[in-house]
Amino acid sequence: SVFIMGKYCKYMRGMSQSPWFSDDHRIGSFPLSLQEYIANPILPLLFPFGIPKAVAPSGTPAARATAAAALVQQLEDNAAPSHVATLKAAFNKERSGVAGPVDLSTGAPLPSGDVVKAELCGGVTHKTFLGSPTQSIDPALIAMHHVLGYGHYKFHTAGREDVDVRMLGTGRPFVLEFISPHKEKIDFNAAKEAVGAFYGGADLVTVEDMQYTTPEVTLVMSRHSSEK
Question: Which whole number is the average pLDDT over 129-152?
Fold first, then answer.
Protein backbone atom coordinates (compact mmCIF):
# COMPACT_ATOMS: atom_id res chain seq x y z
CA SER A 1 0.00 0.00 0.00
CA VAL A 2 0.93 3.64 -0.49
CA PHE A 3 0.05 6.09 2.30
CA ILE A 4 -0.40 9.79 1.46
CA MET A 5 -1.27 12.30 4.14
CA GLY A 6 -2.37 15.91 4.01
CA LYS A 7 -4.90 18.37 5.41
CA TYR A 8 -8.28 19.26 3.95
CA CYS A 9 -10.68 22.16 4.29
CA LYS A 10 -14.36 21.78 3.40
CA TYR A 11 -16.18 24.99 2.48
CA MET A 12 -19.75 23.77 2.07
CA ARG A 13 -22.42 22.10 4.15
CA GLY A 14 -24.38 19.02 3.17
CA MET A 15 -21.31 16.91 2.26
CA SER A 16 -20.77 13.76 4.33
CA GLN A 17 -17.19 12.92 5.25
CA SER A 18 -17.42 9.40 3.80
CA PRO A 19 -19.91 7.72 1.42
CA TRP A 20 -23.12 7.29 3.39
CA PHE A 21 -26.13 5.44 1.99
CA SER A 22 -29.55 4.55 3.33
CA ASP A 23 -30.87 1.84 1.03
CA ASP A 24 -30.63 3.43 -2.44
CA HIS A 25 -30.35 7.02 -1.18
CA ARG A 26 -27.15 8.97 -0.50
CA ILE A 27 -27.16 10.93 2.76
CA GLY A 28 -26.33 14.62 2.33
CA SER A 29 -27.44 17.20 -0.20
CA PHE A 30 -24.18 17.00 -2.20
CA PRO A 31 -23.85 14.10 -4.69
CA LEU A 32 -20.38 13.06 -3.47
CA SER A 33 -18.75 12.63 -0.08
CA LEU A 34 -15.65 14.53 1.00
CA GLN A 35 -13.67 11.29 0.73
CA GLU A 36 -14.68 10.90 -2.93
CA TYR A 37 -14.10 14.58 -3.69
CA ILE A 38 -10.46 14.14 -2.64
CA ALA A 39 -9.82 10.56 -3.78
CA ASN A 40 -11.57 10.46 -7.17
CA PRO A 41 -9.24 12.92 -8.95
CA ILE A 42 -6.15 11.36 -7.32
CA LEU A 43 -7.00 7.73 -8.15
CA PRO A 44 -5.98 8.03 -11.85
CA LEU A 45 -2.54 9.25 -10.77
CA LEU A 46 -1.95 6.03 -8.79
CA PHE A 47 -3.81 3.77 -11.25
CA PRO A 48 -2.74 5.17 -14.65
CA PHE A 49 -3.62 1.90 -16.45
CA GLY A 50 -7.21 2.06 -15.32
CA ILE A 51 -8.94 2.19 -11.96
CA PRO A 52 -9.76 -1.41 -10.93
CA LYS A 53 -13.31 -2.61 -10.68
CA ALA A 54 -14.84 -2.03 -7.27
CA VAL A 55 -14.56 -4.85 -4.77
CA ALA A 56 -16.20 -5.35 -1.40
CA PRO A 57 -13.88 -5.28 1.63
CA SER A 58 -13.24 -8.81 2.90
CA GLY A 59 -15.56 -10.04 5.62
CA THR A 60 -18.48 -7.76 4.72
CA PRO A 61 -21.90 -9.07 3.66
CA ALA A 62 -21.22 -7.64 0.21
CA ALA A 63 -17.97 -9.61 -0.05
CA ARG A 64 -19.82 -12.80 0.87
CA ALA A 65 -22.49 -11.99 -1.71
CA THR A 66 -19.86 -11.37 -4.39
CA ALA A 67 -18.13 -14.64 -3.54
CA ALA A 68 -21.47 -16.46 -3.68
CA ALA A 69 -22.21 -14.96 -7.09
CA ALA A 70 -18.83 -16.11 -8.39
CA LEU A 71 -19.44 -19.59 -7.01
CA VAL A 72 -22.84 -19.79 -8.68
CA GLN A 73 -21.29 -18.76 -12.00
CA GLN A 74 -18.51 -21.30 -11.59
CA LEU A 75 -21.00 -24.04 -10.87
CA GLU A 76 -23.11 -23.04 -13.84
CA ASP A 77 -20.03 -23.53 -16.00
CA ASN A 78 -18.71 -26.73 -14.48
CA ALA A 79 -20.95 -28.42 -11.93
CA ALA A 80 -23.99 -30.63 -11.94
CA PRO A 81 -27.31 -28.84 -12.55
CA SER A 82 -28.70 -30.06 -9.20
CA HIS A 83 -25.95 -28.26 -7.31
CA VAL A 84 -26.59 -25.07 -9.25
CA ALA A 85 -30.30 -25.24 -8.47
CA THR A 86 -29.61 -25.68 -4.77
CA LEU A 87 -27.34 -22.65 -4.62
CA LYS A 88 -29.65 -20.52 -6.73
CA ALA A 89 -32.50 -21.27 -4.37
CA ALA A 90 -30.46 -19.76 -1.53
CA PHE A 91 -29.13 -16.95 -3.67
CA ASN A 92 -32.12 -15.19 -5.18
CA LYS A 93 -30.89 -12.27 -7.27
CA GLU A 94 -32.79 -9.01 -7.33
CA ARG A 95 -32.20 -5.80 -9.21
CA SER A 96 -32.75 -2.28 -8.02
CA GLY A 97 -32.36 0.98 -9.92
CA VAL A 98 -30.12 3.47 -8.11
CA ALA A 99 -29.65 7.00 -9.39
CA GLY A 100 -26.12 8.06 -10.29
CA PRO A 101 -26.11 11.88 -10.07
CA VAL A 102 -22.47 12.60 -11.04
CA ASP A 103 -19.67 11.28 -13.22
CA LEU A 104 -17.44 9.65 -10.60
CA SER A 105 -14.19 10.38 -12.44
CA THR A 106 -14.78 14.09 -13.09
CA GLY A 107 -17.47 15.13 -10.63
CA ALA A 108 -19.53 16.48 -13.54
CA PRO A 109 -23.31 16.24 -12.95
CA LEU A 110 -25.14 13.65 -15.03
CA PRO A 111 -28.65 14.02 -16.49
CA SER A 112 -31.27 13.15 -13.92
CA GLY A 113 -32.46 10.28 -16.09
CA ASP A 114 -29.15 8.41 -15.90
CA VAL A 115 -29.53 5.32 -13.77
CA VAL A 116 -26.98 2.83 -12.50
CA LYS A 117 -28.28 -0.70 -12.05
CA ALA A 118 -27.04 -2.17 -8.79
CA GLU A 119 -27.20 -5.94 -8.53
CA LEU A 120 -28.41 -6.84 -5.08
CA CYS A 121 -28.31 -10.27 -3.51
CA GLY A 122 -31.40 -11.57 -1.74
CA GLY A 123 -30.73 -12.70 1.82
CA VAL A 124 -27.46 -10.75 2.03
CA THR A 125 -28.81 -7.44 3.23
CA HIS A 126 -28.00 -4.81 5.80
CA LYS A 127 -31.18 -5.73 7.66
CA THR A 128 -30.25 -9.41 7.72
CA PHE A 129 -26.82 -8.85 9.24
CA LEU A 130 -27.28 -5.73 11.37
CA GLY A 131 -30.92 -6.04 12.39
CA SER A 132 -31.80 -2.57 11.13
CA PRO A 133 -35.53 -1.94 10.58
CA THR A 134 -34.77 0.86 8.09
CA GLN A 135 -32.02 -0.69 5.92
CA SER A 136 -33.01 -3.42 3.48
CA ILE A 137 -29.80 -3.39 1.40
CA ASP A 138 -26.21 -3.89 2.50
CA PRO A 139 -24.69 -0.38 2.01
CA ALA A 140 -21.47 -1.93 0.67
CA LEU A 141 -23.43 -3.31 -2.29
CA ILE A 142 -24.67 0.19 -3.10
CA ALA A 143 -21.20 1.70 -2.58
CA MET A 144 -19.64 -0.82 -4.95
CA HIS A 145 -21.70 0.70 -7.77
CA HIS A 146 -21.38 4.36 -6.77
CA VAL A 147 -17.93 4.87 -5.25
CA LEU A 148 -15.04 5.02 -7.70
CA GLY A 149 -12.26 2.59 -6.79
CA TYR A 150 -14.29 1.15 -3.93
CA GLY A 151 -12.23 -1.42 -2.02
CA HIS A 152 -8.93 -0.25 -3.54
CA TYR A 153 -8.25 2.58 -1.09
CA LYS A 154 -9.09 3.68 2.44
CA PHE A 155 -9.67 7.17 3.81
CA HIS A 156 -8.46 7.89 7.37
CA THR A 157 -9.01 11.15 9.24
CA ALA A 158 -8.14 12.64 12.61
CA GLY A 159 -11.66 13.18 13.87
CA ARG A 160 -14.66 14.15 11.80
CA GLU A 161 -17.26 16.84 11.21
CA ASP A 162 -21.00 16.40 10.78
CA VAL A 163 -22.52 16.36 7.32
CA ASP A 164 -23.95 19.88 7.76
CA VAL A 165 -20.72 21.41 9.14
CA ARG A 166 -17.83 23.04 7.28
CA MET A 167 -14.14 22.42 8.06
CA LEU A 168 -12.18 25.67 8.03
CA GLY A 169 -9.00 26.98 9.67
CA THR A 170 -5.76 25.09 9.08
CA GLY A 171 -7.60 21.96 7.96
CA ARG A 172 -8.14 18.43 9.25
CA PRO A 173 -5.38 15.80 8.82
CA PHE A 174 -6.22 12.84 6.56
CA VAL A 175 -4.47 9.82 5.09
CA LEU A 176 -5.34 8.13 1.81
CA GLU A 177 -4.21 4.50 1.79
CA PHE A 178 -4.04 3.14 -1.77
CA ILE A 179 -4.04 -0.66 -1.97
CA SER A 180 -1.75 -2.23 -4.61
CA PRO A 181 -1.58 0.84 -6.90
CA HIS A 182 0.11 0.73 -10.31
CA LYS A 183 2.49 3.51 -9.21
CA GLU A 184 4.06 4.29 -5.85
CA LYS A 185 5.13 7.88 -6.57
CA ILE A 186 3.02 10.82 -7.71
CA ASP A 187 3.49 14.55 -8.17
CA PHE A 188 1.80 16.16 -5.17
CA ASN A 189 1.38 19.47 -7.02
CA ALA A 190 -0.49 17.59 -9.76
CA ALA A 191 -2.63 15.86 -7.12
CA LYS A 192 -3.50 19.19 -5.48
CA GLU A 193 -4.36 20.70 -8.87
CA ALA A 194 -6.52 17.69 -9.74
CA VAL A 195 -8.55 18.14 -6.55
CA GLY A 196 -8.83 21.87 -7.28
CA ALA A 197 -10.11 21.20 -10.82
CA PHE A 198 -12.62 18.58 -9.65
CA TYR A 199 -16.34 19.33 -9.88
CA GLY A 200 -15.73 22.07 -12.42
CA GLY A 201 -13.13 23.83 -10.28
CA ALA A 202 -15.71 24.86 -7.70
CA ASP A 203 -13.09 24.79 -4.88
CA LEU A 204 -15.55 23.25 -2.45
CA VAL A 205 -12.67 21.27 -0.93
CA THR A 206 -8.95 22.09 -0.84
CA VAL A 207 -5.98 19.97 0.22
CA GLU A 208 -2.59 21.10 1.52
CA ASP A 209 0.66 19.67 2.91
CA MET A 210 0.48 16.41 0.95
CA GLN A 211 3.34 13.97 1.62
CA TYR A 212 4.08 10.27 1.98
CA THR A 213 3.62 8.71 5.39
CA THR A 214 3.64 5.34 7.16
CA PRO A 215 0.89 2.96 8.31
CA GLU A 216 1.56 3.89 11.93
CA VAL A 217 0.01 7.31 11.35
CA THR A 218 -3.39 5.70 10.68
CA LEU A 219 -3.26 4.07 14.12
CA VAL A 220 -2.79 7.48 15.72
CA MET A 221 -5.68 8.87 13.69
CA SER A 222 -7.96 5.97 14.66
CA ARG A 223 -7.69 7.07 18.30
CA HIS A 224 -9.28 10.37 17.31
CA SER A 225 -11.78 9.02 14.78
CA SER A 226 -14.80 9.79 16.99
CA GLU A 227 -13.70 13.33 17.82
CA LYS A 228 -15.08 16.42 16.08
Answer: 69
